[in-house]
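Structure ticket #2291
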Amino acid sequence: MAPLSFLTGTGVALVTPFHKDGSIDFKSLQTLVNHQIKGKTEYLVVLGTTGESVTLSKDEKKAVAGFVVEAADGKIPVVLGVGGNNTRECAAAINEFDLDGISAILSVSPYYNKPTQKGIIEHYKSVANSCPLPLILYNVPGRTGSNMAADTTLKLAEDFENIVAIKEASGNIEQIMKIIKYKPKGFSVISGDDMITLPLIASGAVGVISVVANAYPKDFSEMVRQALAGNYDKARTLHYKLTDIIENLFVEGNPGGVKSVLKHMKIMNDYMRLPLVPVGKRTADKLAELVDTYK
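Resolution: structure written out below.
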């Protein structure tokens, strides 16, 4: 198993900008991609949780993915999110996309059904066997309703050549360290939580798929690079520079907080698709204050 070199660093879970009428704002999406390239993030993740992918139609997903690949213009790798709780449909959906320009697939553990660990293994077995690209597992029990245990991750990493990494967003550092300790060579562990990225890198994670990097790609990706280089004093300075913003991003859920920040930065508007709504005035004002005083 060969690690994907670009996963060492910062990926950004791109938001999907909308117009007031709910249609996709491709002009703002271009601005956001340019912001990432200028900020030197290592890769883009399109159609993830932060991208409100569950509210997009199949045609919209294809349009967004194709647009991001074109906007990235080969300057930065693109990872495509394809997940679901219908295994057969999820496995088939990957090959319904034009995968030209896509470097890997990120696939979330099945949500709502609450499968057993055996069910999770069988789900990913089906997806891996149908996937022509490297596959990144995604464990986020706060959203899926079921945790992918460390032993499950390790078995999948051992058994499938094209399963190359996991985005771990369980928040369970003990579980994540177990994966890092016993993982096969070439398998990468990626933080799925901005706030604990620094300690996870110190424990052996290779980087992060980030929310806050939508707004602050330069500083957050530099924090990750400094941590990976073992320059923890510099990494800590950047980490603590960002913690107040990170904490407040999630007060009313994701991606409402980061969309509010991006609106204040004049990168895009903060429209969302139901059942999600923009953050309230108190949260928006607090985030605006943090952005205005950020140095």
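Closing remark: The domain at 5-229 is CATH 3.20.20.70 (TIM Barrel).
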